[in-house]
Design a protein that fits this description.
Chain lengths: ~270, ~260
């Protein structure tokens, strides 16, 4: 059973009106349990829309989305996934601990269980000493780690991330990528990750899904064979550069197709 | 010790300015031999303030009570209505333009209408007037705080399949609290001003506003100014109250 199964999904905004936008057209994608899949492409290619369809924050116009073998709606109601956004989106009036406890509160966990789990998550993101701080007392990278801890607090099998490191500086960003891989390895979580950055997508992923706009569709899927153990060294090795070149080629090919040069390698 | 020094550094410029201002005023009145009906010296205002203190205090109590009752009732009603508005968006579209329009007209004239509805010695029209002014300030601000939540928070709560009640309790209300305190900061002085001005439209001559106008009518300018001073102090007291409320809420937040 796939962790995420997307079959012939289309999504149009303002359907039937003069300003109709085909955000996605007939997209299909399977994500296996434990896999790390990145969605990459220029603005307007529908990568964030695709993520929101998986999260059931949007309904598809046509096609089917299944998560964990259930409908996307049921998966959302069962909290089968956690989500992290570009903005950490922590609640300023809650302590770090209380922020992490929020999804558990909504699930009706009792206080001691919540507290124990929040403690465990703080250990996981290596910020246990900040439990009683408020979000605004933390740096951007720390806030994003808390947001990840919150997204994983209920131990969902799937983590959906929408450019979570997009607002961070390059150094923090690379550090966070390492942290994310470590956390995913520790928890066995499946990840669908939206990004603008080619090196980020390659470093993190088992597969990189290249998308193109107008209408949004998948143009190429690049498999990344960097092995399971990825370190700072990985960034200096030939397979890393080869995968980057392949992804860039996918994005370029789309550009060439747009100006009427290259062949459409869909 | 250093805290005291820092506080002094903050307060000193304002105090120096105030003393200089009053000194210049006093000097100008004496040097140009200004007549009391033209401009009264601060020293004679002070004398009047002290000698009439028991009357001033009684008048301030009347106006202050009207302002306080109107402020509390208006805040409670405004908060209640903002919940209704945030729940039923179509109402918001009906009420918000009305609130803005009412804020634009000099609604003090309503006091004259209200005075006709109640007995001439009643304080109720004045309190209703304060209530109305406060109500719309609180309503508009708190409704905004309840509805304007960040899109990330909205998506997050939807991803948790959170109920409307849970979203209200855990996101909307905490988000609206700062808006409530901002509206209190605006409406506390407005309540005092409204209580004074309401007294200009007839009724019992017992509050600060009516004392000011009757003293001016009798050319007792220094006494009128003494009542103005009291009005100013009462307004400051209300403002201070709202600031303290806000800082208490901040402390609650920071534990």
């Amino acid at each position: 059973m796939s962790a995420v199964s997307i079959r012939n999904v289309s999504k149009a905004f303002n359907e039937g009106k003069s300003n109709q936008v085909d955000a996605l057209r007939e997209v299909s994608l399977e994500v296996e349990p434990g896999e790390f899949v990145s969605l990459i492409g220029p603005s307007g290619c529908g990568k964030s829309t695709l993520l929101r369809l998986i999260a059931n924050l949007l309904e598809p116009t046509a096609g089917e989305v299944a998560v964990n073998g259930k409908s996307a709606t049921q998966a959302r109601l069962d909290q089968d996934y956690g989500m992290a956004f570009q903005q950490a989106g922590l609640f300023d009036w809650r302590t770090v601990r209380k922020n992490i406890e929020l999804p558990l509160e909504l699930k009706g966990w009792d206080k001691s269980a919540r507290r124990a789990r929040a403690e465990e998550m703080l250990q996981l993101v290596q910020l246990p000493e900040f439990a009683d701080h408020y979000p605004w007392q933390l740096s951007g990278g720390m806030q994003q780690r808390i947001a990840i801890a919150r997204a994983l607090a209920a131990h969902p099998p799937l983590l959906l991330m929408d450019e979570p490191f997009g607002a961070l500086d390059e150094m923090t960003r690379e550090y966070m990528q390492g942290e994310l891989l470590r956390i995913c390895a520790a928890t066995g979580t499946t990840v669908v990750f939206v990004t603008h950055s080619i090196p980020e997508a390659v470093y993190l992923s088992n597969r990189v899904v290249v998308m193109s706009p107008r209408p949004g569709r998948i143009t190429k899927i690049v498999g990344v064979s960097l092995g399971i153990e990825r370190t700072e060294d990985t960034r200096n090795q030939t397979p890393f550069f080869e995968a980057i070149t392949a992804v860039r080629g996918g994005l370029r090919g789309m550009h060439a197709a747009h100006v009427g040069l290259g062949n459409d390698d869909r | 010790m250093t805290n005291a020094v820092r506080l002094l550094g903050k307060v000193l410029p304002a105090v120096v300015f105030g003393v200089l201002f009053l000194g210049t005023w006093e000097w100008a009145v004496r040097f140009f031999e200004l007549k009391p009906y033209f401009l009264t010296a601060p020293s004679s205002i002070g004398k009047q303030f002290v000698s009439n203190f028991s009357f001033i205090r009684r008048a301030a109590t009347v106006s202050g009570t009207n302002a306080l009752i109107g402020l509390v009732a208006g805040t409670v009603l405004g908060v209640m209505m903002s919940f209704v508005l945030s729940r039923f968006r179509f109402l918001n579209q009906i009420i918000s333009p009305l609130a803005v329009a009412l804020n634009a007209v000099p609604i003090f004239v309503l006091v004259a209408v209200l005075n006709n509805m109640y007995s001439i010695t009643s304080e109720i029209p004045r309190r209703i007037m304060v209530l109305l002014v406060v109500y719309f300030i609180v309503l508009v601000n708190v409704a905004r705080g309840l509805t304007q939540i960040s899109s990330t928070h909205a998506e997050l709560m939807r991803s948790y399949a959170a109920s409307d009640i849970a979203i209200l309790r855990k996101v909307r209300i905490p988000n609206a609290l700062p808006f409530l305190f901002v509206s209190l900061k605006i409406s506390a002085p407005a309540a005092v001003i409204t209580a004074f001005v309401s007294e200009y439209f007839g009724g019992s001559q017992n509050g600060l506003g009516s004392r000011i106008s009757s003293n001016i009518a009798n050319s007792k300018n220094a006494a009128a100014w003494a009542y103005v001073l009291a009005a100013c102090l009462l307004g400051l007291l209300f403002y201070l109250f709202s600031v303290i409320m806000e800082s208490l809420s901040r402390k609650g937040e920071a534990k």
